Amino acid sequence: MTMNHSAEARPPIRFRGRSFMATVLAPLPPVAEWLADLDALCQRAPAFFNGRPTILDLTGLSLTREDLDELLAELRARRIPVHGIEGAPPGMSGDGLPPSLSGGRPIGEVAMPDAPAPEPEPAARTVPSRSLILDVPVRSGQTILHLDGDVIVLGAVASGAEVIAGGSIHIYGVLRGRAVAGASGDPAARIWCRRFEPELVAIDGLYRAADDLDASFHGQPVEVRLVDDALRLTALDASR
């Protein structure tokens, strides 16, 4: 009798848990005014939702299925794909809707960019950018958002943390989380770090995840900049 040993040689199925940081959108009534506020945010920070998993929290809203379909269409029109829905009314799931989620652990609110200041007179248009200096490490689950200039981190950026800057990002420790520079539309922004182990880096909306980065730079002092619509990594001389 011939026996097929292929099933015995096949490794068992393995299940792994993995956590991802997501942005939760919680609309407030009237939804039309909330969408107008969302438009104002997107105008101030066009790249804010780029590469971010987004969850729609419907807790406290009284929506029909037609209302929900319209809201999802409005978000898609703004290039904000919804990856899951939390707090949906009973029975409102499936049928082409994003999956229903529950049990998420909140990590605090993400700071929104300030409204733009009134435009100065032509003679005073040049306004120096302001740098944000962080004396402490950026912990897992934290999002640092500063669109008015550079962000300088004197410590490390942990895995699961995110730093978003309108200008450049300087990290004097290890980068294990996400670094998003030039988020206000600055292609000349750069990322510098003493030890390069990121989950994701981005400049002016162009993103590269860890799996797409040259492994030879891992753990090294690195500069990231945008050259000809591509992210270029350069090893830095740590002895200088």
TrEMBL record:
Keywords, sorted A to Z: Cell cycle, Cell division, Septation
Superkingdom of origin: Bacteria
Annotated Pfam families: MinC_C, MinC_N
Keyword Cell division: yes
Family annotation (InterPro entries): CAP/MinC_C, MinC, MinC_C_sf, MinC_N, Septum_form_inhib_MinC_C
Residue ranges, annotated region (Disordered): 86-126
All residue ranges annotated as the Septum formation inhibitor MinC C-terminal domain in the record: 134-232
Domain Septum formation inhibitor MinC N-terminal: 13-79
Compositionally biased tracts (Low complexity): 89-104
Subunit structure: Interacts with MinD and FtsZ.
Function: Cell division inhibitor that blocks the formation of polar Z ring septums. Rapidly oscillates between the poles of the cell to destabilize FtsZ filaments that have formed before they mature into polar Z rings. Prevents FtsZ polymerization.
Membership in a protein family: Belongs to the MinC family.
HAMAP family in the cross-refs: MinC
NCBIfam families reported for this sequence: minC
Descriptive protein name: Probable septum site-determining protein MinC
Lineage summary: Bacteria, Pseudomonadati, Pseudomonadota, Alphaproteobacteria, Hyphomicrobiales
